[in-house]
Amino acid sequence: MQRVVVIGGGVAGLTLAYRVARAGRGVLVVDSAQRPGGQLGRHTVAGITLDSGAEAFATRGDAIPTLLAELGLDDRVVQPAAYPAWLFGADGRAHPLPAASVLGIPGVPLASDVAAVVGWGAAWRAALDPLIPGLIGAKADTVGELVRRRMGTGVLEKLVAPVVEGVHSRHPDEVPVSALGEVPRHMSRGTALAAAVRRVRDAAPAGSLVASLDGGLHTLVDALLAGIEKAGGEIVTGTTAELVDEGTVSLTHANGTVTRENGRIVIAAPGIAEPATTSPAHLVTIALNAPALADAPRGTGLLVARGSRVRARALTHLTAKWPWLRERAGSTELVRLSYAEPAELSTALADASTLLGVPLEAPQVVDHATVSWSRAQPTEPHPSIPTIGEQASGTGLAAVIAHAERTAKELIP
Ligand SMILES: Cc1cc2nc3c(=O)[nH]c(=O)nc-3n(C[C@H](O)[C@H](O)[C@H](O)COP(=O)(O)OP(=O)(O)OC[C@H]3O[C@@H](n4cnc5c(N)ncnc54)[C@H](O)[C@@H]3O)c2cc1C
Listed GO molecular functions (predicted)? Predict the structure, then answer.
């Protein structure tokens, strides 16, 4: 049986390769970076190794817990601190995000934490949802269309859009309703949108909706690499693959030599079969000497609504969010801001100060790091070559890993 050749050693490619190698089939992973893992990257800030990309996974579904248990990482799973996330509105005010919500869609539109964000007028409009005939919005393709029709523009733009953009880097009008998990299924049985949200929240397992690993999520990459090699798989880094035909790739190695490899090709990187559409994410991580942040004034961090004077799209207060990191960082505070365009440290520091509501000055900066990512948007899968990764499965580790696992099953003898 031909060996499997995986183009791209992000978490999708590595998960598939791990599964295929463990089942006894030969596998080669080719990654253009020096260190595989893709968006599960790492960097060092103030002497601490941090995630430079994804830092949490959604706890829904079995795929990630099963993989972590097999890799012996289940005892390192950590929950975030029980602080709320906040929203920084276009009006320049910060509010905790409503507790009972799915991607910002409120389960109780007239709750005071909803009205505080969207205003009472928009909250009352959203509260009409159960009175609106079920047909309205029933055929909506996107989250934006669904929310606009059932709850109105106020809730959509002031609450749902910042949350969706924080997760998917796209406006809800560009995000399919499937991103709402079980919500559309409940609605297809005649449940109104808010009630469907409440059902999904009630059915969620106890504990946080996200988790991570003590030491950072990037350590999953190390475990996968070790698992693949132990099972006899091969990993080549610093090597760019190009598709020649359905069974052949051309590899350009770091020293400039070009070789060819035949096998059962799997595409696990964007832009291989056709040009990729990507959206950028630029992060600035700052280590601060700022005792005023020790009490987590904005919980685990904030999402920023469009139209705000702050350029950052989101801020994560890393040392407030992850107790393991708080312990490791001692009195140093770590915050991470994300932007659509590259941002200077001075901009990020000013934004952090505004968002956290605490004066922060340059002398308080202990260290900082910037990193830029491009995130693949969904594309049509290749008609005959298995395609995995976020361009095929949608963004987020829960979706990416589950899809890679399903695809691996089709390749296992
Ligand atoms: C800043 C940031 C924060 C995030 N936060 C979260 C989060 O908290 N929770 C969550 O679930 N998700 C999060 N995500 C999304 C998540 O990280 C991604 O959905 C997931 O890691 C994508 O994995 P992938 O394997 O599909 O792609 P990638 O990680 O992009 O991997 C693709 C790999 O292919 C390689 N490659 C590209 N072209 C070639 C080529 N021609 N030849 C060989 N190799 C090639 C690249 O080097 C890369 O290693 C975040 C992403 C970013 C950027």
Answer: oxidoreductase activity
